[in-house]
Amino acid sequence: MGHWTKGCIAIFNGLIGQGEIKGILENSIKGNKVSHAYVFTGPRGIGKKSFAKIFSGMLLCEKQSGDMRCGQCFACKTFDNNTNPDFHIIDAGEGSIGVDEIRKIQSEVIIKPLYSSRKVYLIIEADKMTVQAQNCLLKTLEEPPSYAVIILTASNYEALMETIRSRVSRIPFKKYNNEELRAILDLWMDKPVNNMDFVLSFSDGIAGNALDIAGSEEFVRIREESINVILKLSTKKADDIFNAAKFFEENKSDIDTILDIMQTFYRDLLIYKKTKNEKMLINSDKKGIILNNIAKFTVGKLGDNIELIENTKRILQQNANFQLSIEVMLMKLQEE
Ligand SMILES: [Zn+2]
């Protein structure tokens, strides 16, 4: 590495974990075995987009070495300014990716790169491509120009057509262990994390979840209120359903989080009821509340409640009526 001047960038150094993936990507560049197409898979928040962007920068640098990019060449400078003409990002955001966006790639990819030896197309949440869009992309994947690299990210790999899956190299991201999550939180949070044990177990090995909930006052508020809903429902008063429904309506945009919190709380009650082992609790910081309320629930009812929330998540994803689904859920949660 002696010839590397100051300013060069060791590409994956800023990213914690995923050692196997770093190795595969670095070796593909070093060994001159870069694929024409990749799909980075794994749950939302696992780091697919961050890794894909860094890998793209590496592919475009004119003086890269596989694990370093120079940071000085024109390709690097424009990449860092988000103006590199050989780099294109398509991001589904909240919607889907339609055929028109893929047609643009199709007609653009045949023009040779301007400053690099490659052109890189990054399609974020490619699993949100419509069937037409996927069919269109397939044509490019069947006969890609030699300089083109197409990187897809997908949290739902199965949503990609088999014909696409068979033409892309899959890079599966793994969940982070607690040590890695701690390091990620240390790196990105500007203050120490309260209730670290809860943050680690609730985030389920997903860095994006850990970063979202650590230090978020909004999350703390929603969590307290969600747990209160559970406790109030266990007192069997009719007006509690009305108040609980109001809380759901007012926090509609956080419905996934609320249902996850309620589910883990019921799960903890169930686990404790069965095992009496405090170490197995996700909501370890709420141990006192769990122990004080455990007698109000039976094993059977807790199991039913967990399943009920799972069903509610599913029907909401299928665009069922929000208010009705929540009210039915709350009534059933309250039932003896
Ligand atoms: Zn460079």
Written account of the structure:
The protein contains 15 helices and 7 strands. By secondary structure, it is of the alpha/beta class. It has 2 domains: 9-172, P-loop containing nucleotide triphosphate hydrolases (Rossmann fold); 216-334, Up-down Bundle (Zinc Finger, Delta Prime, domain 3), CATH 1.20.272. The chain has a 5-stranded parallel beta sheet with strand order 4-5-6-2-7, with helices on one face. Strand 5, helix 5 (131-142) and strand 6 form a beta-alpha-beta unit. It binds zinc ion. Residues 61-63, 69-70, 72-73, 75-76 line the site of zinc ion.
Topology of helices and strands:
Elements: E1 9-10, H1 19-30, E2 37-41, H2 48-60, E3 68-69, H3 74-80, E4 87-91, H4 99-108, E5 119-124, H5 131-142, E6 148-154, H6 162-165, E7 169-172, H7 178-188, H8 196-202, H9 207-213, H10 217-233, H11 238-250, H12 255-275, H13 287-293, H14 299-317, H15 322-334
Parallel strand pairs: 2-6, 2-7, 4-5, 5-6
Antiparallel strand pairs: 1-3
Helix pairs in contact: 4-5, 10-11, 10-12, 11-15, 12-14, 14-15
The site of zinc ion has 9 residues, from helix 3.
Calculate the mean pLDDT score and round it. 91
Counted beta strands: 7
Biggest sheet overview:
5 strands, parallel
Which word captures the global form? elongated
The radius of gyration over CA amounts to 24 Å
CATH H level of the largest domain: which superfamily?
P-loop containing nucleotide triphosphate hydrolases
The assigned structural class equals alpha/beta
CATH architecture of the largest domain: 3-Layer(aba) Sandwich
Hetero groups in this structure are: zinc ion
**Number of structurally distinct domains:** 2
CATH topology of the largest domain, anyone?
Answer: Rossmann fold
H/I helix tally: 15
Instruction: Spell the H/E element sequence.
Output: EHEHEHEHEHEHEHHHHHHHHH
Could you tell me how far the N terminus lies from the C terminus, measured between alpha carbons in angstroms?
69 Å
CATH class of the largest domain reads Alpha Beta
Strand fraction equals 5-15%
In spatial order, strands of the major sheet run 4-5-6-2-7
Unreliably modeled segments = 1-6
- Helical residue percent band: 40-55%
